[in-house]
Amino acid sequence: MHNWQENEINELLTIRGSEAIRNQITGTVKDSVVYGRMTKLLAERGVYRSHMQVISKLKALKKQYTKYHQQKSRCGSDHVDWPFYELCHRVFAKTPVGTPVKRHRSPSPMLTASPPSPPPPPTAISEEHQEVVVGLWDQVDEAEIHKHLGPEEVEDEEEQYSSSEHLQPITYTLPPKRKKTTVMEQVSTLVTATVTQLREMDAAMQAQEDARLQRLMDHEKEMQNNLMSQLVAMHERISGENHKRHLELVDRILSRFPSPSAPSGH
Question: Taking the CB of residue 62, how many other CB atoms lie within 10 A of it?
């Protein structure tokens, strides 16, 4: 039984429109538990439907309600020729009656965050410390610096970065993209080789099958010839025996009659 009766639809919409059920509908997968509870409530009212039938019927009713509601909004009519429109409106309307309003709590004054304190100013370097650092730096031997850094090459750098006129444009040709083409060629070659191998295997199997059928036909023909030979031999033997019996029977019958005597000379 798949068709819903009018009283069954009324019971379904009444249960779905109840405040307890509407408050539990969240539009997520958790609604499956709510639909299972609705199935039990319908069974208590004498409507025995499965879990999936309830979900499918509610989807169909919502789709039909949306259609009638849009027609009503376009035409501006107050009357809708559908008996379940009012019940569906209470169930599927965007702002149903009795929807709990969320209240926003005002922040507690105890939880108000105080503005962060500004970071401490950086510690100023004293003039005495600066004099000590400069003095240590002056005491560093320049020879030691050249030892670690190497000789200066001012002339080479000047020649290298002299002017843009001596710079030659560098041209670089990108290699063609052959990787994708190579892969496609390899795949095509592999497919061609596989198809050729399959055709050869099919031809070999066909030849084996033809040979097997030919052997079966030859064997069957040989058996037929042997059977015909046996039947002919049996027929000749039976015919010979019957002929012999007929002769013996004729001899017996003739032996019962006296042979005719020769005429006397009176």
Answer: 14
Tokens read off for 264: 């006397």
Inter-residue contact 82 to 69 (CB < 8 Å): no
- 50 touches 39 (CB < 8 A): yes
Conformation bin of residue 151: beta by default, left when phi > 0, alpha when psi is -120 to 50: beta
Q: What is the pTM of this model?
A: 0.36
Joined together, the tokens standing for residue 41 give 């409530």
Can you say whether the dihedral through the CA atoms of 58, 64, 67, 70 is positive or negative? negative
Q: List Cβ neighbours of 58 (8 Å cut-off, separation of 6 or more).
A: 12, 16, 35
Which stretches in the chain have pLDDT values below 70? 1-2, 94-180, 259-266
Q: What is the pLDDT of residue 105?
A: 47
